[in-house]
Amino acid sequence: MHHKPDDILEINLSKATSTNDIAKKISLSRPVVIITASEQTKGRGRYNDRKWFSPKDSGLYISIVFSDIDNFDSECLPYITKMISTSVYETLADYNISLFIKPPNDIYTKTGKIAGVLAESKTKGNIVERIISSAGINIKRPDKVPIEIKHKSSYLSDHIKIRENEIDILKKGFLKNLFKNFELVKNKKYSLIDEKFSSYLI
């Protein structure tokens, strides 16, 4: 299944606690809802105590809610994080920079972490009703980075000269890759997700 424009609702926010917070609370009116924020005040990682530094206009902060998943069951859940991590990796790889995935959900360059992903789901029994795919991708290094992550983080601007609309360009590429890999999971082609994910590891 390919998503048609009428299937997708896009919500672009100037500021949010996190796009993931919005995604968990939103009432779904379309099979796919895409939420982005220019800034997150409480961006987080896989664990609630892991914060994701998300200053204004410095990265892609995005969550995608899939609810067109009638044939999904719980066997797909181990592959959702792999699906998102693989999609981020493939998007950044188009910039010809050296990358690797550090399992289960971080993407690194040689100089530090450039992206993290978060997968969550809503289930009813063995049926998956909603999948939330979230990612934070560092693009433009801000003037001030917290000292505790300053030398552990990496930004796309550390490696290439970024364009004025780089966030939008990267968003388009990420969604293309995510939708493609979502189809693999939807069609239960788990071995293909595993194969790609494994080839991108350290």
UniProtKB/TrEMBL annotation:
InterPro entries: aa-tRNA-synth_II/BPL/LPL, Biotin_CoA_COase_ligase, BPL_LPL_catalytic. The keyword Oxidoreductase does not apply. CDD domains: BPL. Keywords: Ligase. One of its GO terms (molecular function) is biotin--[biotin carboxyl-carrier protein] ligase activity. One of its GO terms (cellular component) is cytoplasm. Residues 18-138 form the BPL/LPL catalytic domain. Pfam families: BPL_LplA_LipB (PF03099). This is Biotin--[acetyl-CoA-carboxylase] ligase.
